[in-house]
Design brief:
This protein has four helices and five strands, in the order αβαββαβαβ. The protein is an alpha+beta fold. The protein has a single domain, classed as Reverse transcriptase/Diguanylate cyclase domain (Alpha-Beta Plaits, 2-Layer Sandwich). It has a five-stranded mixed beta sheet with strand order 2-3-1-4-5, sandwiched between helices. The radius of gyration is 16 Å and the shape is globular.
Length: about 160
């Protein structure tokens, strides 16, 4: 007997049950930090920030990211079992975020890491709620996996 299918399921449903669990975990973890970043943006101490969502297999991703991050970057382990991490890079724009992601992916590859997926989201304005920011990051990540963009950087900006 095969897996049960939902006959009413729309073909454009973006998230699986596992991805919804991931979204809930990301929201719980990241919403307070994004609120703080928005506060700093209001005070004009921060102009933009970048969120990087990254996964890779066959490597200690936590150790690599901890070594690569700056003192102002914040690293979150979202799913240890699936090796999914989010890094918030303060005062970072498109070019800096992209170069950072290139360096991280290159180091993962040098350490023989596989199945690398990297999504970055630059946040320039406060028009989006923290929840919308997190869900946009995850949506972009899920789409990059669905379209097999392994070893690529998928970058989006919110402005």
């Amino acid at each position: 007997m095969g897996n049960r299918q939902n006959e009413n399921r729309s073909s454009n449903l973006s998230f699986t049950g596992k991805e919804i669990e991931l979204a809930a975990n990301m929201l719980k973890t990241l919403e307070p930090t994004i609120d703080i970043m928005y506060y700093l943006m209001d005070l004009e101490r921060e102009q933009t920030f970048v969120l990087m969502l990254l996964t890779a297999k066959d490597i200690d991703l936590n150790a690599l990211l901890s070594k690569e991050k700056r003192e102002t970057d914040i690293l979150y382990e979202i799913d240890k079992e699936e090796s999914i991490y989010v890094m918030l890079c303060q005062d970072t724009k498109v070019d800096g975020g992209y170069r950072f992601a290139e360096r991280v992916i290159r180091n993962i590859q040098l350490d023989k890491g596989t199945d690398i997926y990297c999504t970055e989201l630059e946040v320039r304005v406060r028009h989006y709620s923290p929840k919308q920011v997190v869900l946009k990051l995850l949506e972009t990540f899920v789409k990059s996996k669905q379209t097999n963009k392994s070893n690529e950087i998928v970058f989006r900006s919110l402005y």
